[in-house]
Amino acid sequence: MTQTFERKGMSLRRLLFGDPLSTSQLIHERLTKVKALAVFASDALSSTAYATEEMMLILVLAGSGAAHLAWPLALAIAGLLVIVASSYHQTIHAYPNGGGSYIVSHDNLGQVPGLVAAASLLTDYVLTVSVSISAGVAALTSMAPPLYPYRVGIALVFILVMMILNLRGVRESGTIFSIPTYIFLIIMFGLLATGMVKWIAAGMPAPLPPQRHYPVAHTLTLFLILRAFSSGCAALTGVEAISNGVPAFKPPESKNAATTLTAMAVLLITLFLGVTFLAHQFGVVPDEVTHETLVSQLGRVVFGSNTLPYYALQFATALILVLAANTSFADFPRLSAILARDRYMPHQFSHLGDRLAFSNGIIVLALASSLLIVLFGGTTTRLIPLYALGVFLSFTLSQLGMVARWRRVKGPRWQLKALVNGVGACVTGIVLIIFALTKFVDGAWIVIVWIPIFISFFLAVHRHYVSVAKQLSLETYGDPSPIHHNRVIVPIGDVHRAVLAALHYARALSDDVTAVYVETDPTRTPRILQKWEKWGKGIPLEILPSPYRSIIAPLVEYVDRVNDPTRRDLVVTIVLPQFVTARPWQQLLHNQTALLIQMAFLFRKEVIVVNVPFHLHDIA
Amino acid sequence: MTQTFERKGMSLRRLLFGDPLSTSQLIHERLTKVKALAVFASDALSSTAYATEEMMLILVLAGSGAAHLAWPLALAIAGLLVIVASSYHQTIHAYPNGGGSYIVSHDNLGQVPGLVAAASLLTDYVLTVSVSISAGVAALTSMAPPLYPYRVGIALVFILVMMILNLRGVRESGTIFSIPTYIFLIIMFGLLATGMVKWIAAGMPAPLPPQRHYPVAHTLTLFLILRAFSSGCAALTGVEAISNGVPAFKPPESKNAATTLTAMAVLLITLFLGVTFLAHQFGVVPDEVTHETLVSQLGRVVFGSNTLPYYALQFATALILVLAANTSFADFPRLSAILARDRYMPHQFSHLGDRLAFSNGIIVLALASSLLIVLFGGTTTRLIPLYALGVFLSFTLSQLGMVARWRRVKGPRWQLKALVNGVGACVTGIVLIIFALTKFVDGAWIVIVWIPIFISFFLAVHRHYVSVAKQLSLETYGDPSPIHHNRVIVPIGDVHRAVLAALHYARALSDDVTAVYVETDPTRTPRILQKWEKWGKGIPLEILPSPYRSIIAPLVEYVDRVNDPTRRDLVVTIVLPQFVTARPWQQLLHNQTALLIQMAFLFRKEVIVVNVPFHLHDIA
Hints:
The structure is a homodimer.
Chain A: H1 2-17, H2 33-46, H3 51-59, H4 70-94, H5 101-109, H6 111-143, H7 151-168, H8 174-201, H9 222-232, H10 241-244, H11 253-282, H12 294-303, H13 308-341, H14 359-375, H15 380-383, H16 389-409, H17 414-472, E1 485-492, H18 497-509, E2 513-519, H19 525-535, E3 541-545, H20 552-562, E4 570-580, H21 584-587, H22 593-602, E5 607-615
Parallel strand pairs in A: 1-2, 1-4, 2-3, 4-5
Helix pairs in contact in A: 2-8, 2-11, 2-13, 3-9, 4-9, 4-11, 4-17, 5-6, 5-16, 6-7, 6-13, 6-14, 6-16, 6-17, 7-13, 7-14, 8-11, 8-12, 8-13, 9-17, 11-12, 12-13, 13-14, 16-17
């Protein structure tokens, strides 16, 4: 019966997650620059699918005319990207073993800044999944509008599939992962090139008026412009990925990683500016009525609706966004495992599953991002105010950490290096403040409230583990005197085979065995006594009256009476008969008294509870 | 710590549910006819609040003009009520100890008919709560339409409060319960009298045209008329209540109960016909736009909007409907307890809680009726097609049972008595068939599918308990030879105080103790061996390799190797260290390996698992 259950469970498990892998199979694949670009850049590059749109959605609050401000804002964000990339260039060389923000901040700034970075990163990994999947689904529903009402369901299915694949242990397999990234790059550059050719062929006309009219709902204030800028900063998410992954590069690791970072920054800037420029020229603005994405509209303007290149664009966009989400499925469990090893997260996060993946981290990420998708209705725009705050917090801390590092380790031209990182820290710090202020009411407050909660969780976990280690330590361990006396108590509710089985085992444990009967219904007592006379083997039976029909209270009181915690050589063992039914549902047909008794004595010292299973077979 | 938890839990419990009651406090209050009418008739009388409306809602499908058919249908239902009441009159005299349909059918027709009656009754008790509460909330929202969107939430709060009150052990306290019933009767008769006076004063005009126009959506077929008739039959629900409760009457019980039944039938017929007649005369028809109930509309027509009598009518209606729901909170747990005692339901349903209420039945009823409220959007009309089918099924069975009884016991004028019950059985049987056919697609199919499932559950439970009793029986019990050898295995994951505490206990159990270490990471093994050398007390330590990092599989394999189920004098005991944290959330920071090991060995014979708790204290 159970054997079959186990086997069934096992084969379903294997079907979904594959055969278990031996620890010795844990090998690393080293990546060439071309493959590494694909693996590490998908997150950053994919944000060009929504960054321009999110920026414009804020601008058009001041009327459709304000949409043209997207272009100067995009230029400012490109400048910001240059500064951030330069700063990370230095991190790559300083931390050839991988310089994630947590490690850099923890090493150079101390515990709390390190945990702030960790909390921001983990939060942003969750948001990366939610935002990327929502945007990916939006790319699909733009192509097939009837699917729009099902976007939450589709997004959850994507996350579920990604979770299963990652539990199977999909590692950053360069070859497979580089295909969608390069397809996306080819199609996006095709879009930009075709668009530019059309614009030039038309005689480089002045920008077309916006295709959809938005009334002026707000005045065009500096605050509104900064809010739009903050939305656009979503384009920068994922830039830190390469600096985390330096050891995955072929040697010389740092040099190759730095080159790849430069290539990524150039591609990202080109795509982001290109999309923004063409949208501006062709009068494409976000459409909150049809829910069609800006890139989809641009694709139809440039390639024409229902053309092969247009569909390819949409599929490639969806694909790279899913891939971007998948990078979080590698990063979140890895950082959780590091934090677990440093005793800031439950140590279950550091366990390798039988497919060599950090299963718990993968499951928690899938659950958390699914929850966000449900709470925010699978809408990218609603999630954006929560996104990027954590990214900029970790950017700032990691660069401040680099400044502190230069001041400590010095080395050639350290002042210049500290200046580069210092400028990076200042600029990202300012963006962080702008972001927090302009997005506060839209949702950034959630992250601002959440991060301190998360950090106090880290610290509480840490305190617990440190305290446990101290309590378990054998340093001052004094050998206890051996137990000479085991007082065994067998609570009974009736006299039948299961009770006699428990009694049988109890007699093997000790000569001092007493049965106790909690008398909830005094009319049954004579019958119990009569049966005990016959089957009780002369073992004394205590009757405990219970006028309020509680089983537990009289038992606890009795055990407290016969126990003596001051006698180190005495232990009390409670032996309980426990039914084990052939089918799980049948277990519900029996009282859970054994469980309740176990719970009641769990916290009492020097009392051990033993369940003696009695196996019921099913009806033949 | 825990003591405080327990105490906190205890005081919250007492606040909500009151102090525990001793079994000897279980006394019965005997009811006068006046009080008994209030207690037992609330369910039946309250159905006049919605029966006319539900009938008309079907009729107006054939256009507003068809609403006038409500009057002849109401007369037919009144005739049906006379037949059913006469039939139950006889049951009351035949079963002075209470003749519920389950008992009457089980006694006279056999197991399966008894279970059919039981399944129908339990189902209808759940529906009584859902329907009455929905209708009660509708009475409130008719008065305060802005509350309409919150009807599901309000209904759930009502059920929750009723659950808490019943867990406290509100018994059918005649005095308290008679007040709302008599207020309702006074106000309803006031409504009817005032309405009649108005109508007579106006010179008894012909009926007004319907106040709201309904287009002709269906032809007025016989099927539609029978469908409306079926909806109106909801008025008959609750008629059987008195026959269940004969022992609660003051002596002479049967005579008093019979008189009360007659009074109830007269009141019910008067109210039902009165409401239907006045609605007909004043052109009041259900309003699916404002969601105002028919009785509320009638109240405003007769008393005027915003008058004190109108508000009193609505409050009294809501109150008696809640009271009607409350009768199910007495009946459902009581019948469940009877079924549990007969081993058709899990025996937990027969446990008296510490307030002398059948707590499990109360909780299950609250959950099931809440679920129906949520699934059917708290709308009476959607629940009506499920309702009353069970009532008529149990009516029919109980009367067939009475016919069988007369044929068996005979007695004076038994043929006449059998005829009365026979007519009752035929008529209710025909109504049952009409109901099932006309309401099938509207929802009756759910009940038709559900009842056989429920019955097979009863039978499966019964088979299990019978089989368990046989397996536990000591009739052929042969005394096993005593256990001479207890082989104790202590699985360890490290060497620390908790492991040594388990080892300490293990040595008290047996001289044959072996520690085993499942080696998931071979690099840790030398350190473990070195520590064991120092602290292991010379106890042998087995190293079990586990290349796939599973803890359970190598352990199960090892135990299978050292165990010998053929040796009756040998038992294997696994002693596990188990962390008990000071705060419950901290428990999540530890592996649940002990639990997994326990689960893995639960089904293996002759292996006993013992947890030795190690109490971690919180940080000072």
